[in-house]
Amino acid sequence: MKKLLKQLTETFGPSGYEDEIRKLVQTELEPFADELKVDALGNLIARKKPVQPAKNTKKIMIAAHMDEIGLMVSHVDENGFVRFSPIGGVFGKYVHGGRVRFLNGVQGVIGYDRFDKVNEAPALEKVFIDVGATSRKDCPVKIGDVAAFDRPFVEMGNRFVAKSMDDRVGVLIAIETLRALKTTPHDVYFVFTTQEEVGVRGAATSAYGINPDIGIALDITPAADTPEAAKMEMALGKGPCIKIKDAGALSDPRLVQWMIRTAEKNKIPYQREVLLFGGTDASAIQRTRSGVPAGCISVATRYVHSPSEMVDASDLQNTVRLLHALLRAPITLE
Ligand code: CO
Ligand code: ZN
User: Fold this and answer.
1) Which strands make up the sheet holding 159-162, listed edge to edge?
2) Distance 43 CA to ligand 2 centre (A)
3) What confidence tens digit (pLDDT) does each residue in 28-87 have?
4) What is the CATH number of the domain that holds 87?
5) Which DSSP string corresponds to 78-143?
6) Ion ligand 1: protein residues whose beta carbon lies under 5 Å
7) What is the DSSP string of 142-157?
8) Which of 48, 94, 109, 282 is a Cys-bridge partner for 188, taking CB atoms 3.0 to 4.6 Å apart?
9) Distance 333 CA to ligand 1 centre (A)
């Protein structure tokens, strides 16, 4: 699992530019999926058919987003300094001294105009990318070119650190679950969605197309186990977080109960998640067509949307175990 997570997180795929990461995921899935297709927005849809369709067969959509936050060139000045428009939630506090890599291979360092207030992160308008150019003419990037953060994967004890754990961790869990799922009574669509970070766009169109009975997003969630973090439950190493609420969706309470029952029956550690902000693909699935019962399973992650997001290895394994247990048996929602 570690080797694949390293590969997934070291691949570049900002929202709207998911080609490279999609190719990697597609190669991993080919031997296991009954059907594979890519829709108009670039969502990769891998279907696992039921052994035998029956009355209690449910059409289930599992969504993990392939895209990551990034930057797009919006201006190059006469000295070759590059200004950018953020793709998704890029925070000024995390970027100074960071490095980015453009899809054309060019690398850059992020600088700030001035630290007027040393203890405050500047607004993104005060932030630029230095690509080593000396003039607009010799600048190797142009308006509209796209970059993502550049940081290698590292292992620290039981923890893994990399850029884009959000949401390559979800991608990994979906791949591993499909691999482990020899048979299922359900018609399962594993969807590797696009453009989540700019407003759950890929999940919206793919959910419309699939028209599922149940939707489950797989994503990361900010851990609150560091000194003086917000008062929330989520911690590294304590098992998958079963989402009850975030700013984007209220999980269907019947799905929450089904997830908790299944975790307890299979002795899988879990955490009850109420996230005070944020949202996932579940919010788009839930509101598609005339509505879909939806929920989310997330992995507690530290330093979310920084180039060094940290997760715990045991949480990844336990999340695969939980999703596998949910998908292999008939479902009763009550
Ligand atoms: Co995110
Ligand atoms: Zn995410």
Assistant:
1) 154-156, 159-162, 309-312
2) 15
3) 999 999 999 999 999 999 999 999 888 899 999 999 999 999 999 999 999 999 999 999
4) 2.40.30.40
5) TT-EEEEEEES---HHHHTT-EEEETTS-EEEEEES--SSTTSPPPGGGEEEE-S-SSSTT-S--T
6) 166
7) -TT-EEEE----EEET
8) 48
9) 29
Ligand in closest contact with the CA of 66: 2
Residue 71, SS3? Answer: strand
pTM as predicted? 0.97
Q: Closest ligand to 217 CA?
A: 2
Pairwise CA distance, residues 334 & 253, whole Å: 9
How many Å lie between the centroid of ligand 1 and the Cα of residue 57? Answer: 32
CA of 167 to the centre of ligand 2 (A): 5
74-88 pLDDT per residue, tens: 999 999 999 999 999
Q: What are the residue numbers of the active site?
A: 196
93 has pLDDT over 90: no
Strand order in the sheet with 294-301: 35-38, 44-48, 187-193, 59-65, 214-222, 294-301, 241-245, 271-274
Q: What whole-number distance in Å separates Cα of residue 240 and Cα of residue 234?
A: 9
Query: For strand 214-222 and strand 187-193, is the pairing parallel, antiparallel, or unpaired?
Result: unpaired
Task: For residues 77 and 27, state if they share a domain.
Answer: no
Q: Which of 101, 118, 149 is the last residue of a domain?
A: 149
Total domains in the chain come to 2
- Ramachandran area for residue 190 (φ above 0: left; ψ -120 to 50: alpha; else beta): beta
Range of the domain at 243: 2-68+163-328
Q: Could you tell me the distance, in angstroms and rounded to a whole number, from the CA of residue 191 to the centre of ligand 2?
A: 14
Identify the nearest ligand to the CA of 69 by its number.
Answer: 1
**Are residues 26 and 80 located together in one domain of the fold?**
no
